[in-house]
Amino acid sequence: MKKKKTKRPVSALTGIILSIFTENPFKAYNYKQVGHLIGLKDKAGRDLLLKIIDELVQNESLNEIKRGKYMLNPEKVQELSSIKKHIVGTVDMLKTKKAYIIPEDGGEDVYIATNNLGHSLHEDKVKVLIFPKRKGHKPEGQIVEVLERTKDTYVGVLEMSKNFGFVIADNQSMPYDIFVPINKTNKALNGQKVIVKITEWPEHSNNPFGEITEVLGTPGNNDVEMKSILADYDFPLSFPVDVEKDADRIPTKISSSEIKKRRDFRKTWTLTIDPLDAKDFDDAISLVKLESGNYEVGIHIADVSHYVTPGTALDDEALKRATSIYLVDRVIPMLPEVLSNQVCSLRPNEDKLTFSAVFIMNNKAEVLEQWFGKTIINSDRRFTYEEAQEIIESGAGEYSEEINILHALATLLRKKRFNNGSINFNSEEVKFKLDEKGKPIETYIKEQKEANHLVEEFMLLANKRVAEKIGKQKENKQPKTFVYRIHDEPNPEKLNTFVQFLKKLGYNLNVSSRQTLASSYNNLFEKIHGKGEETMIETIAVRTMAKAIYSTDNIGHYGLAFPFYTHFTSPIRRYPDLMVHRLLEKYLEGGKSANKDVYEEMCKHSSEMEKRATQAERDSIKYKQVEFLLDKKGKVFDGVISGVSKWGIFVQLVVSKSEGLIRFNELKDDYYYLDEDNYRIIGRQSGNIYRLGDKVNVLVKDVDMEKRQLDFAIID
Question: Which of 22, 38, 378, 410 has the most CB atoms in a 10 Å sphere around its CB?
């Protein structure tokens, strides 16, 4: 028996038809397309549809732009624009060709359906028309203009046909394959990894057009994959010739006239403590025990600003890069090697030019006096963190007395910092041992120990005191333009969501004041240490926080609980530190305030490049984590449930911190459903529960190097 068709009132149908045109005011439809969208396919329905469209043309709601093609009347578009709001924001593209817009001025993210994306791409700055909000739905809209294309080059694999090719991008946020004509392939071969530049995107084409600018090589080769990561974030793979020439012209010998201008620390006991594989030694620490019983502690930083001067090709390139990038197997330096690893690097038993912060401290680690200025040092010894740690733990070894005095002072500084509201975010660093071809043969977690804390506390002290020196107002005078490292308070909505999340896991967070929140965070991190849910909670905790950035407008550093903070201690690898050195020298000599707008622009650029470098570093770690398991398919590992989703449960391996997915259809013992509110899945028949933080044994089922994805199966 046939079902009776529901008859729609004409007036309602008119409204639905009009809404199709108003939701897509710049798109033309014929009556068949409209009929398909609303499900009117029979002759009677089509006749009715044509009648309504004709009425809408008569009352000037629609225009027939060419025979059988209709579009919303431009006057109606203007009318809608006055009712509907336009916003400017950044595109957050999904693999599914849907997107969310992150508004420039804050507020809720705006959902953009696939057919409303225009020709926008991930991280483009766009103008969006907001649709009237539907009850129970998130804000939705349509991208009406791409204001700024953030990225136009991509790394991917070329798939060739006879007369053309397509580049399938590595970047998961690039859902479109890029069409490449046969004469634009740059002799690349099918299956090779390439860099492609988008040259145009014709209005009626589903895919952008491009040309191959560089052939990287065969996928899977370690060097090719690391270069691919760098190229995907638009980091240069080498220095331009004029920059190398600039660097080679720098004199390596220090003149006697330059030494006379500086405070001489060459006979003062000084050391550096760095990672085993480091070559760019930015900082050194000196110690003198004074007759008064107090200590003179010097924090000596490589004087890069003496060698790298504004207006040179060397400085322009350093600003463009803004940071060094640390991938798993290599460093892409901000400065050429002759500077970063030789001339500026504070190598032992060599005279080196430095910019120093010198403090007279008592045995309670209170600063009694301070001095900032240009210096020259000669480091007595280069320690690795492991060597310094052994001396701290044993109390014996070369320069053990000096190292343990510094350790005692740093411990007091650290304790005071946390008592004042600094938040102790724990971070685990995944490290790899690689074979000669760059393949990971072992993975381990690098721990932060007392030797790391020793260096960290004195660097924090120098950064804080330099910022205070310039930033603190004197006699109601406006502070001079300066570069600060700022960290805003947590987003209240994100913080509230985090509090609710913790309650379901049996933890509390006291948000009644800034001090209690910081203390509560630190107590939480102590409670979860070593537990299955530790990684997940710490990850979400970090996401509740704003991102630290560079700015000329100081709002303090929330996470450190410092009213004034900057970056002064790493000018070899961070351009903002070089800016700080130049400004500090200028102001110590009585110079006028620098141009705020110029420095703010450099701050924004540096923050963006830092973000990109962090993403590239994470991508290289993720690649090696997946590669580490490539020859371990079928093996079983200990893991912890690190996430739950509608696709299944995510498990992080204890051995490598690699994260993989166990799909619901791999759970053979029962039909499981997601209890999203309580971060768990439940077996319908058995009542068996897998929850966030549970320890599980998993089998490595599949390793997809191309997508950098792992599939696991649970073993009971």
Answer: 410
3-state secondary structure of 700: strand
Whether the CB-CB separation of 472 and 500 falls below 8 Å is answered with: no
What's the rounded Cα separation, in Å, for the pair 523 and 348? Answer: 41
Enter the tokens of residue 395. 């109390």
Strand arrangement of the beta sheet that strand 295-302 belongs to: 263-264, 367-378, 351-361, 295-302, 283-289, 270-274, 381-384
Length of the chain equals 716
Token pair of 612 as six digits: 């990109």
Which pairing describes strands 680-683 and 689-691: parallel, antiparallel, or unpaired?
A: antiparallel
Say what the pLDDT of residue 136 is.
66
Q: Is the pLDDT of residue 180 over 50?
A: yes
Tokens encoding 221: 């080769």
Hey, what are 100's tokens?
């969310």
- Going by the DSSP 8-state scheme, the letter that residue 665 receives in this structure is G
Report the alpha-carbon distance of residue 355 to residue 581 in Å, rounded: 8
Q: Quick check: 589 and 402 in contact, CB under 8 A?
A: no
Q: Which helix (H) or strand (E) holds 400?
A: helix 400-419
Burial (Cβ within 10 Å: 0-12, 13-18, ≥19) of residue 82: exposed
Judge whether residue 689 has pLDDT over 70.
Answer: yes
Which of the 8 DSSP states describes residue 115?
A: G
Q: Where are the beta strands (DSSP E) in 201-294?
A: 209-217, 263-264, 270-274, 283-289
Band of the pLDDT at 16, cuts 50, 70, 90? low
Question: Using one digit for the tens of pLDDT, what is the confidence trace for 22-49?
Answer: 767 778 888 888 877 666 666 776 787 8
Find where tokens 């768990």 sit: 680
Query: Which uninterrupted H or E stretch holds 254?
Result: none
Q: Which residue has the tokens 């913790």?
A: 502
Contacts 24+ apart (CB under 8 A), 91-97: 91/120, 91/121, 91/122, 91/123, 91/124, 91/126, 91/143, 92/122, 92/123, 93/120, 93/121, 93/122, 93/123, 93/173, 93/174, 93/175, 94/173, 94/175, 95/172, 95/173, 95/175, 96/175, 97/175, 97/176
Measured CA angle at 327 (ends 651, 611), to 5 deg? 80
What percentage of the chain exceeds 90 in pLDDT? Answer: 62
Output 425 or 156, whichever has higher pLDDT. 156
Report if pTM > 0.70: yes
Q: Is the pLDDT of residue 10 over 60?
A: no
Mean pLDDT of the chain: 89
Identify the three-state secondary structure at position 440: strand
Task: Give the burial string for 102-124 (b: 16+ CB within 10 Å, else e).
Answer: ebeeeeeebbbeeebbbbbbbbb
From residue 115, how far is each of 23, 46, 143 by CA, in Å? Answer: 11, 24, 10
Cβ proximity of 702 and 633 under 8 Å? yes
AA letter at 467 = A
CB distance 493 to 543 below 8 Å: no
Do residues 344 and 251 touch, judged by C-beta distance below 8 A? Answer: no
d(CA 452, CA 388): 9
H or E stretch covering 150: none
pLDDT digits (tens, 9 = 90+) for 699-714: 999 999 888 899 999 8
Residue 162: Cβ within 10 Å count: 6
| CA–CA gap between residue 516 and residue 374 (Å, rounded) | 41
Nearest to 356, CA basis, from 280, 263, 266, 267: 263
Using only C-alpha atoms, the chain has a radius of gyration, in whole angstroms, of 30
* 491 phi and psi angles, rounded to 5 deg: -65, 125
Contact (Cβ atoms closer than 8 angstroms) between residue 546 and residue 489: yes
Rounded to a whole number, what is the largest CA-CA distance in the chain?
105
Given a contact cutoff of 8 angstroms between Cβ atoms, the answer to whether 354 and 264 are in contact is: no
Which SS3 state, helix, strand or coil, does residue 356 take?
Answer: strand
- Residue with the two structure tokens 């330099």: 466
